[in-house]
């Protein structure tokens, strides 16, 4: 039951700033602490959590913790400085210690120690963190969902059961952001084959399909239509159907001729008679010839100049990021020369 204690306000306590929430328990709901002060009577503790520190880079590893110490009849602990010890467990009783102790006993120069805590008419305020006596950061204490604070006054036994640490409303959104940054808080087995993003592997069946076509975006495979059977004599010409458009991101681009798998594919050059002749093939990008792929000439006798599978002609291009048009350009010199493309395609993709 939450109730406001008569005659007290949720304002400045012991010189500290106003808490966001003020949680008071009835005397019969408080928990005993044996052997404290003059009469060695049990005392009760009423704990208030005003704010929590979540594991985020911009948030300090500190918790502002406030509470009220009283004896069984509700009388506040006399005003004085007290030695208080704080630990954080994962259960209200027993359980596993996840952080602490941090000891406020007046010791200086040692990790996890601090000045004694002023208690004014039973009320106290303490800043937990940033580390305990083992130099463990307070950030490490909140990797689980349930956390409970255990407090010991002086050399007495710890107060049990421990008090649960509750999150402020906006802390839920911060927790979601932390999980997103760490790939935590979700079962990743369906993606990695194991709920271990660090060591798991993504299978090819989980990868998005690449776009394939004559005009593709970043990450796609630009694949032209088939050349079919086409031949050309003397002159300069763009090979029909051998043009594609691709959007690139600035990575190297692989350009190659490939076979149309539905039919036998070949690039073939011949001469119908004697005389000087030559055949040349270029890759072009954005209307300009970039690379001379093949250039062969033979003036001596009729016959075949060259006969190549499409995959024998390829190169690596380094265009800037943007939209680019690739094409195949051919030239035959000499009256008796012929250049033929049989079922060939142009393939272009970023590496």
How would you write the strand order of the largest sheet? 6-5-4-9-10
CATH class (first level) name of the largest domain: Mainly Beta
Low-confidence stretches: 1-57
Q: How many domains would you count in the coordinates?
A: 2
Tally of DSSP helical segments: 2
Overall shape: it is: rod-shaped
Q: What's the CATH architecture name of the largest domain?
A: Sandwich
Structural class, by secondary structure, is mainly beta
Mean pLDDT: 76
Name the helicity range.
Answer: under 10%
Largest sheet: 5 strands, mixed
CATH topology description of the largest domain? Immunoglobulin-like
**What fraction of the residues are assigned to beta strands by DSSP?**
35-45%
- Rg over CA atoms, rounded to whole Å, is 39 Å
Order of helices and strands: EEEEEEEEEEHHEEEEEEEEEEEEEE
Distance between the termini: 65 Å
Number of strands: 24
Features of this protein?
2 domains, disordered N terminus, rod-shaped, 351 residues, Jelly Rolls, mainly beta, 5-stranded mixed beta sheet
Explain this structure to me?
- There is one protein chain.
- This protein has helices spanning 169-182, 189-192, and strands spanning 44-49, 63-70, 80-82, 84-89, 97-104, 113-114, 117-119, 123-128, 148-153, 163-164, 212-213, 215-216, 221-223, 229-232, 235-248, 253-259, 266-271, 278-285, 288-297, 303-308, 314-317, 322-333, 337-342, 344-350.
- The chain has 351 residues and is mainly β.
- It has two domains: 27-166, Immunoglobulin-like (Sandwich); 212-350, Jelly Rolls (Sandwich), CATH 2.60.120.760.
- β4 and β5 form a beta hairpin.
- The two termini are 65 Å apart.
- Mean pLDDT is 76; it is low at 1-57.
